[in-house]
Each structure stands twice: as C-alpha cells, then as structure tokens.
Design brief:
Largest interface: A-B, 45 and 50 residues
Mean pLDDT of chain B: 96
Low-confidence stretches of chain A: none
Largest sheet of chain A: 4 strands, antiparallel
Order of helices and strands of chain B: EHHHEEHHEE
Structural class of chain A: alpha+beta
Oligomer: heterodimer
Helix content of chain A: 40-55%
CATH class of chain B: Alpha Beta
Number of helices of chain A: 5
Strand content of chain A: 15-25%
Strand content of chain B: 15-25%
Strand order of the largest sheet of chain B: 2-3-5-4
CATH topology of chain B: Muramoyl-pentapeptide Carboxypeptidase, domain 2
Mean pLDDT of chain A: 94
Order of helices and strands of chain A: HHHEEHHEE
Number of domains of chain A: 1
CATH architecture of chain A: 2-Layer Sandwich
Number of strands of chain B: 5
Distance between the termini of chain B: 72 Å
Shape of chain A: globular
Number of strands of chain A: 4
Helix content of chain B: 40-55%
Strand order of the largest sheet of chain A: 1-2-4-3
C-alpha cells in the first residue's frame, strides 16, 4: 500500500519519471489530464454551481485535511479569493526529505491543475511562488474584468 | 456582503487527505496507459528506493520488526488500525488486512480502484522483503475491499 500520507513523495517521483521518459511537456500533459478528468469533476462542479465561491468550498475541505498552516479569504463583494499558505505540508514534506531530490517544478502542478479548470468559468489566478523553498506561497483568484479602454 | 476568513495552524488538523489515494491510483493508471505495466513497476520501484531509503536501511538493520512497526504506524496514520492484524516471529511476518483504506475510501465516493493494488504491494513490499533477507508472498487480495493476506518469510524458512 502507498498510504495517502505518503502520496507527496510518490507524486514527486511520478513527475520525475514522466520527465525522464518524455520531457517536461509530458509532465504538463499529465497535469492537464488530471485537471480535465479529476479536478474538473470536483472543483469545476463547485464553481459551476456556486461561482467563484466554489473555490472557498473546495479549499475549505482540502486545506484542512492536508493540515495546512494558512489564511484563506473570500470577499463576496469583490469576488476575490486568496490563500496565504504559511506552510504547505506537501512542499514542506519534500523540503524535509533531504535524502530525496524533489521534482524541480513540483509546485508547478498547482497552477495547471486548478487554474486550467477555473479559467473556463472566467476566474483568473495570480501566484507568488517565490518562497516555495520555505513551503510558502500566495494565490489570488478573481473574476476576469473586462479590459478598460 | 461579507468577508469570509479561515485561519488555521497545521496543529489544528490531522494530516489525512484521503483523496490522495485516488491521486496515487490515477497516477498509476496514467503511467500504465502510456508506458505499460513495465512503467508502473519502474515507477513503484523508483518511489520505494527513493522515499523509503532510510526505512530500507532500518529494515536491513532490524529486519522484520522494522517492517511490522512500519505497517502498524501507517495504518494508525490512516485511522485504519482495525484493519491490520499480524503475527511476527524471528523467521516470518504474517499479515492480514481486513480492508485497504484507499480502496474503502474510493468506493465510498463512487470511484473504481485501478487494478494496481496487488502489484503495488508486490513491488513495494518485495523491496522491503529483499532488504530484510526475506521473500514476500501475496497470498490473497480482494479487489472489492483491498483485503489481503501476505507474508515476509526468511528465505531459508520459506517453503
């Protein structure tokens, strides 16, 4: 058995394996596949039903189950959803497994998996991944606004 | 109009995201579709040698006891201690699991687990067994529940 508590190093090794077989594009294709087949059925359905507030519903469950150290906000008026990840246990685990080499773009999966789905519903994301070496990141999602003339 | 705020520390929750069982399964399914069973075996082998490196060293030192302790710990983390029973002697670790926590979870949310449960055990636990100077034997695996019977037996004791 691979326990769900052992998934993160498995995921990292999977990305490394795919890249060694067919390059970085193969890794991105995998992320897109999971986005289309798995995330769409979960996050996508929530956003389809609740609008951008579906993000709040989705991450309310997953971030708690993943025992993240975070601050999450949703402003109903501006329809702005943010996650300030003070410590991501997934990235944190990889950083602590010093005997393993983490996949070089491990955190890249987050933007592809989720935002490929969210873009379909008019939600755009911006990210700050500059502190992933400390298992920290920041993401903001909001409805796309029409370009001002 | 409200501003919703959720602020949590890691210590507020237990680390148990069962969806990750589905994610492991999806990964193995995808690798099979693109690289065949050989690819699945290779990924499992690499994962085991990389992630379990310190554990394999421990198993080489302490043998079957280290494997038994690992299984006990991982089933506790999964809140599935009730599923695990084992008998440990100097020559053999015999294990019986009443269900696989991942299979149970996936079925509970309407997902069909892939065919890779038994092979995962054979590769991961096979490498554990090798480190202990043992042979791994998967005696039964129930696809509906993931219930399994398996053993790690010292090679000289294996019949």
């Amino acid at each position: 058995m691979i326990s769900c508590t052992e998934f993160i190093p498995f995921y990292s090794e999977l990305f490394t394996f795919l890249e060694e077989q067919d390059g970085y594009d193969a890794v991105v294709r995998y992320w897109e596949h999971i986005s289309d087949t798995y995330v769409q059925d979960r996050l996508g359905k929530l956003v389809e039903k609740e609008g951008i507030r579906g993000c709040w519903t989705y991450w309310s469950r997953s971030l708690n189950e993943e025992a993240c150290d975070f601050r999450m906000t949703y402003d109903e008026e501006t329809e702005r959803f943010t996650i300030d990840m003070r410590h991501c246990p997934s990235r944190g685990m990889l950083n602590e497994l010093t005997y393993m080499k983490p996949y070089h773009d491990y955190c890249g999966h987050c933007a592809v998996l989720y935002d490929r789905v969210l873009e379909k519903y008019g939600v755009e994301g911006t990210f700050d991944f500059s502190k992933v070496d400390k298992a920290q990141c920041f993401s903001c999602r909001q409805m796309k606004r029409p370009a001002q003339e | 109009m409200a501003l919703l705020v959720m602020d949590r520390k890691a210590s507020d929750n237990k680390y148990l995201h069962l969806d990750f069982h589905s994610s492991v399964d999806n990964g193995l399914r995808y690798v099979c579709e693109h690289y065949g069973e050989k690819g699945v075996r290779e990924l499992l082998r690499r994962y085991t040698l990389a992630y379990h490196k310190p554990r394999l060293e421990d198993i080489r030192r302490r043998g079957l006891t280290a494997i038994a302790e690992y299984l006990k710990d991982i089933y506790e983390k999964e809140d599935a201690s009730d599923a695990l029973r084992y008998t440990l002697t100097d020559a053999c670790l015999t294990v019986e699991t009443a269900y696989h926590p991942g299979v149970r979870y996936m079925r509970s949310v309407g997902e069909t687990p892939s065919e890779w449960g038994p092979l995962t055990m054979q590769v991961v636990y096979g490498i554990f067994a090798e480190a202990a100077g043992c042979a791994f034997s998967l005696r039964s695996y129930d696809e509906q529940t993931g219930a399994a019977k398996f053993s790690f037996a010292k090679k000289e004791a294996a019949v």
